Amino acid sequence: MLQGWVLTNLETMFTDVNDKVGTIATEVGQSPSTWNAGIFNMIKTLSDNVMIPIAGMIISFVLVYELISMIIDKNNMHEFDTSVFIRFFMKACIAVMLLSKTFDIVLAVFDVGTHIVTQAGAAITGSTSLNVGTTIQSMFNSQLSTMSIGDLVGLGMETMIVSMCMKIMSVLITVVLYGRMVEIYLYISVAPVPCATVANREWGSIGTNYFKGLCALAFQGFFIMVCVGIYAVLVSSVAVASNLHSALWGVMAYTVILCFSLFKTGNLAKSIWNSH
Asked: CA–CA distance from 227 to each of 28, 39, 224 (Å)?
């Protein structure tokens, strides 16, 4: 009975994390339009009906402010040149065109990120799953003759504790993946407002920082894939043939490291792109 209890715990211990880690590439590699069509359509409707009118007012203010700045920039209008109106007209046309194509530009950023994640997934060839059914079980059978009832009870308690911790790790991985997508949708929903400020030098920092944040979110998926690749190498290097207890806690430690690293990918991407 004790042997069956321990074996059952070992076989089911890593199922949740293995399944979740195996789907990370699929989750991260999806664009906002394909991850959840219902949410995407709602966000697009909010952007078109709520944010576009506000962005229109902002770009009107920004363009008027830009025109005044261009006129008084030349020695307080003492060196006035009529060509300034041509430059202003060209700048206004470009700003309005960019505002009208904001949604396409934002999605293009994430399409590039999706392409990078896909290529990274193809480059990561290691397996992220630990074959508990054969490796650990064969190891357990080899040590079965040396285990007393007390050892089996202790091992069973260990597997129960580790199994609970692994389920928590699986939930935290889900939080990281879904939290990133929710943040992406929040960024997309207000895209027209910061993009309306790009035409002006002083106000343009708002739009510039917004695009830095978009690039950071897009490249966060690449860092997530790198974490998965590192996890695959660490798990494959577990010396399961020496000691069952060490292998058990070693794989759990690597899973905790994976979870912690996934939480750090967002700050890392923002620091690289200087987004705040």
From this structure: 12, 28, 5
Instruction: Return d(Cα 80, Cα 73) in angstroms, integer.
Output: 9
Angle at which helices 244-272 and 204-236 cross, to 10°: 160
CA atoms within 13 A on the CB side of 82: 0
- The Cα angle at residue 108 between residues 106 and 113, in degrees rounded to 5: 100
Q: How far apart are CA 258 and CA 169, in angstroms?
A: 9
- 128 and 235 Cβ atoms separated by less than 8 Å: yes
pLDDT along the chain (276 residues), means of 10: 71 66 77 86 88 87 81 64 76 82 87 84 62 58 66 76 79 86 90 84 84 90 85 67 69 82 89 84
List the beta strands (DSSP E) in the chain.
none
Contact 197, 204 (CB under 8 A): yes
Contact 217, 117 (CB under 8 A): no
> In which residue are the tokens 């040590």 written?
143
